[in-house]
Structure to design on (592 residues):
């Protein structure tokens, strides 16, 4: 699992991605996927919802699958049952997405392997919102260990 | 980013973790954010903070940047994912059990326990309909015999107060995980420098930060540190996994993953209990923790020297320092506490309760007070003070006899400490004390 929680990979995705396709994004404000999408929008990411059961979420047009998204995707962020991941990973490779990110509890070694073989960096069982807040945001205001150690202004960003 | 992020060492993190140069002023020391509230940027941000959609400062009863620096530093040193600070160790412990338990639940608790914790758990059990199953932590089958299908947590101290019993953390963790319960360890006496229970399979660590973490006896404080590895959605912890009525049906574990317990503890339990750590106290803790490793090495060396000396003095019975060669805990110390077993231990005066009184009255350098983990050397007679509320059988179970004296060995010159103890022992034996 640690192979898919590599700090450098996580940093590169969080710092460089602009467009995040969220597979399984719910319209319900109580679901984790909605929390994450809302947070990412507030922090300047373009969120593209992917969900066959919705039309508009958080002001964005929803697409039924990754294949229907008409623009370049930097990260495919997955909030689905692990059984659905291999197919999502195949689609992510097919559309040329930049990375595959599997949220807390979305654990699919097979999906991860498919994406890796297609050339995509993979993060598994981690939350994109948490990692953004840890590296760039305000998670250190909540008493969480961010791993940030810095005695200079540059080091602390 | 062409460089792999560095994994910094313990001493580096003790000085830096949780604290960054203040981005606004450049202040190198952590500012004391002595404020009750925080001005919101706009109404949407305020709503996002209250909904927990965005991490933001709201009110110092829930979070405060100075307190957060302490929390992050402790979490980093304990190898946890985060921490929530409380006004005291007992407040931290009460809040954790309040968050985890439902009426009718059981917890398995080591009998060798700080008297204040025993009293608190009995109180919680009475008021909240919790059943306590007391465990002989020295018995290899003790934990397994004491857990049931209703057990929701196992609780013990890394090094027990004052008996010096050392917990077999891996054994207790394996029993806990067999029944789907977390192992909660009070790591106050060891500190993360001497032992990190989370690295041996414990799930949650609690601290009285009043002791070695602040290190100088100035501050009452406590904290809960979570490993982030326990599955709170295993069907046994509805308060963490099921919809919260306080947040419109939010499921803490589903939404916050490894941070679920800590988010629950902060935004519900701490919010509602109000036992919040003051920013100034957090500042003192940050100062103290910078020197944790340096201090603990000296505490350990001084305590071992005092224990070895006591072992050959007339009028002294058992010396219960777990790192002594004849201690039953020696092998557990080697496994879990290779840098040393701390500096709090007890010994028995053969002259009993009256000898204990004369011993303490004859000391002039050691302070007679109810705390441990200070730079100053401290002494107390548990039977008449910290463990006074316990019945005789509870006293014996805690490893306390009428003539038991507990020491917390400080950082003074060890010869000066022995000089004073020698005077106390003479008095305990009934001889006159000459200064």
């Amino acid at each position: 699992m640690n192979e898919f929680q590599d700090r450098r990979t996580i940093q590169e995705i969080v710092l460089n991605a602009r467009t995040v396709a969220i597979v399984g994004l719910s319209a319900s404000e109580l679901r984790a996927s909605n929390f994450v999408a809302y947070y990412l929008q507030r922090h300047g990411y373009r969120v593209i919802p992917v969900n066959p059961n919705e039309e508009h979420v958080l002001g964005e047009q929803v697409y039924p699958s990754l294949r229907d998204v008409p623009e370049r995707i930097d990260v495919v962020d997955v909030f689905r049952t692990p059984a659905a991941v291999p197919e999502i990973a195949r689609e992510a490779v097919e559309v040329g997405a930049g990375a595959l990110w599997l949220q807390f509890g979305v654990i699919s070694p097979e999906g991860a392997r498919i994406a890796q073989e297609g050339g995509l960096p993979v993060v598994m069982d981690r939350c994109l919102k948490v990692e953004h807040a840890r590296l760039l945001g305000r998670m250190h205001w909540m008493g969480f260990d961010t791993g940030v150690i810095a005695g200079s202004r540059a080091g602390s960003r | 980013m062409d460089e792999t992020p560095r994994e910094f060492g313990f001493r580096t993190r003790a000085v830096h973790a949780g604290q960054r140069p203040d981005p606004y002023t450049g202040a190198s020391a952590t500012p004391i954010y002595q404020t009750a509230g925080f001005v919101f940027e706009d109404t949407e941000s305020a709503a996002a903070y209250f909904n927990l959609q965005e991490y933001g400062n709201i009110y110092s009863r829930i979070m405060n940047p100075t307190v957060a620096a302490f929390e992050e530093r402790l979490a980093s040193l304990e190898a946890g994912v985060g921490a929530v600070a409380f006004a005291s160790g007992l407040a931290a412990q009460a809040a954790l059990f309040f968050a985890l338990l439902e009426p009718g639940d059981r917890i398995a608790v080591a009998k060798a326990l700080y008297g204040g914790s025993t009293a608190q758990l009995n109180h919680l059990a009475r008021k909240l309909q919790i059943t306590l199953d007391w465990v002989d932590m020295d018995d290899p089958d003790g934990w397994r015999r004491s857990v049931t299908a209703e057990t929701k947590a196992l609780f013990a101290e890394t090094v027990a107060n004052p008996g010096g019993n050392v917990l077999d953390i891996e054994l207790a963790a394996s029993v806990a995980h067999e029944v789907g319960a977390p192992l909660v360890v009070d790591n106050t006496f060891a500190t993360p420098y001497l032992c990190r229970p989370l690295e041996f399979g414990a799930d949650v660590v609690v601290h009285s930060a009043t002791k070695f973490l602040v290190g100088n006896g100035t501050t009452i404080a406590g904290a809960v540190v979570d490993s982030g590895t326990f599955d709170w959605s295993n069907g046994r912890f509805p308060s963490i996994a099921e919809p919260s009525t306080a947040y419109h049906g939010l499921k803490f574990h589903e939404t916050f993953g490894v941070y679920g317990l800590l988010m629950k503890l902060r935004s519900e339990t701490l919010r509602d209990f109000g036992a919040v750590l003051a920013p100034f106290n957090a500042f003192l803790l940050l100062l103290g923790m910078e020197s944790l490793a340096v201090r603990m090495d000296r505490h350990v060396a001084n305590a071992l020297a005092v224990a070895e000396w006591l072992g050959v003095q007339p009028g002294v019975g058992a010396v219960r320092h777990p790192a002594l060669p004849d201690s039953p805990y020696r092998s557990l110390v080697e496994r879990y506490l290779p840098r040393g077993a701390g500096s709090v231990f007890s010994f028995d005066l053969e002259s009993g309760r009256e000898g204990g009184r004369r011993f303490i009255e004859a000391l002039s350098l050691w302070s007679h007070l109810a705390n441990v983990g200070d730079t100053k050397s401290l002494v107390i007679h548990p039977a008449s003070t910290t463990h006074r509320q316990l019945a005789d059988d509870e006293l014996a179970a805690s490893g306390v006899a009428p003539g038991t004296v507990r020491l917390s060995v400080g950082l003074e010159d060890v010869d000066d400490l022995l000089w004073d103890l020698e005077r106390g022992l003479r008095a305990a034996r009934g001889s006159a004390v000459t200064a």
